[in-house]
């Protein structure tokens, strides 16, 4: 059965939003806001620290439960950086988080 492209895109969007709204089984990463970036008109910079003993598939940054960025894994990296395209403003306020995904030996995807 072949699904229309629109249905596939909706499924992918729903899957990416799910990681932002519900915690997974893996230990949570640590998210830090670069304090220098919190001033009005500055670029917002978020740092996501993933556990060193975890093999990461990808890192997802979220705002208010919705994905704002996805970064592919880098085996040598445990700190992932998100830099907003827009300068800080009142609209930037919200609840930010980062999550990561990991595929186990059975190719099962797990979320933090």
Task: Using brief descriptors, characterize the structure shown.
112 residues, alpha+beta, four-stranded antiparallel sheet, three-stranded antiparallel sheet, 1 helix
Describe the structure.
The chain is an alpha+beta fold and 112 residues long. The protein is 15% helix and 39% strand. The strands form two sheets. The protein has a four-stranded antiparallel sheet with strand order 4-3-6-7, covered by helices on one side. Strands 1-2-5 form a three-stranded antiparallel sheet, with no helix packed on it. The radius of gyration is 15 Å and the shape is elongated. 17% of the residues are buried. InterPro entries: Ig-like_dom, Ig-like_dom_sf, Ig-like_fold.
Strand and helix layout:
Elements: H1 5-21, E1 30-33, E2 43-49, E3 58-63, E4 66-72, E5 79-87, E6 96-103, E7 109-111
Antiparallel strand pairs: 1-2, 2-5, 3-4, 3-6, 6-7
Biased composition (Basic and acidic residues): 101-112
Domain Ig-like: 27-112
Keywords: Signal
Multimeric state = single chain
State the low-pLDDT regions, or none: 1-15
Task: Indicate the radius of gyration in whole angstroms.
Answer: 15 Å
Sheet with most strands: 4 strands, antiparallel
How much beta, percentage-wise? 35-45%
Helix content: 10-25%
Task: Please tally the β strands and state the result.
Answer: 7
**What's the average pLDDT?**
79
Provide a count of the helices.
1
Structural class by sheet pairing and helices: alpha+beta
What is the CA–CA distance across the termini?
32 Å
How would you write the strand order of the largest sheet? Answer: 4-3-6-7
Q: What letter string, H or E per element, gives the SSE order?
A: HEEEEEEE
């Amino acid at each position: 059965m072949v699904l229309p492209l629109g249905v596939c895109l909706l499924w992918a969007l729903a899957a990416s939003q799910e990681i932002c709204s519900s915690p997974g089984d893996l230990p949570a990463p640590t998210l830090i806001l670069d304090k220098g970036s919190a001033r009005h008109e500055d670029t917002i910079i978020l740092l996501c620290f993933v556990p060193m003993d975890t093999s990461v598939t990808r890192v997802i940054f979220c705002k208010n439960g919705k994905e704002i960025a996805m970064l592919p894994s880098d085996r040598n990296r445990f700190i992932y950086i998100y830099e907003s395209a827009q300068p800080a403003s009142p609209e930037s306020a919200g609840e930010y988080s980062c999550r990561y995904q990991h595929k186990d030996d059975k190719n099962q995807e797990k979320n933090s």
